[in-house]
Amino acid sequence: MSAALINLAAEQKSAEVTDWAARIGWVVGLLLFIAFVYWLMRQGWKWRGSLQSDLPELPVAPEEPGADGDVKLRLSGRYHGSTTAGQWLDRIVAHGLGVRSRAELTLTDAGVAVVRPGATDFFVPAGRLRAARLDKGIAGKVLAEGGLLILTWQHGDRLLDSGFRSDRAAEHAAWVEAVNLMNQSITTNDAPTTGASTTDASTTATTTEGTAR
Questions:
Q1: Which of 135, 132, 77, 74 shows the shortest CA–CA distance to 103?
Q2: CA torsion angle for 68, 119, 162, 53 (degrees, to 10)?
Q3: In the prediction, which pLDDT does 202 show?
Q4: pTM across the whole model
Q5: 140 burial class (0-12, 13-18, 19+ CB within 10 angstroms)?
Q6: DSSP state of 55
Q7: Which of 117, 118, 105 is nearest to 61 (CA)?
Q8: 81, exposed or middle or buried, with CB in 10 Å at 0-12, 13-18, 19+?
């Protein structure tokens, strides 16, 4: 009876022994795998950046955001990235546009100033703004429907979508309305006057006809 109890206690004690060499090997292997995946991600990021090397430097905001016009709107929130317009997974990483960060947006008659603590600030001139809309995803980030404010703008030869989320999502609608209204106003002002062209053409035709007679 005593011998059986002693053997049982010895077996239980042996079961508690840990194979530390095997455990350490698994941990080291896991760490190496994580490091390898991280390295692949960095290489992919650099490769994408080299493909976007033709992208010009980002426009710089005026020294005073409201210097060229009264401040229309402000927004505090997060910048979630930029992509090729209409392609929410085609991330733009050149010039720091791929870095997610906090963001402070200011809309004036001059355009949209984007201030990003710890990342590159940039400015979207009013003449380069193309549209604004509500969406749910950009650059691999997916939120609730309408959870993102997307600004579409021209930069060099590329049309970009930049995604922002305000700390107060209810502000998004006001930004969409204001940016699209500004874009319509600029488009209208830049359009040629059809009436004047028609009048000039009519006058030219009449003059030509009179000369012929």
A1: 77
A2: 100
A3: 42
A4: 0.67
A5: exposed
A6: S
A7: 105
A8: buried
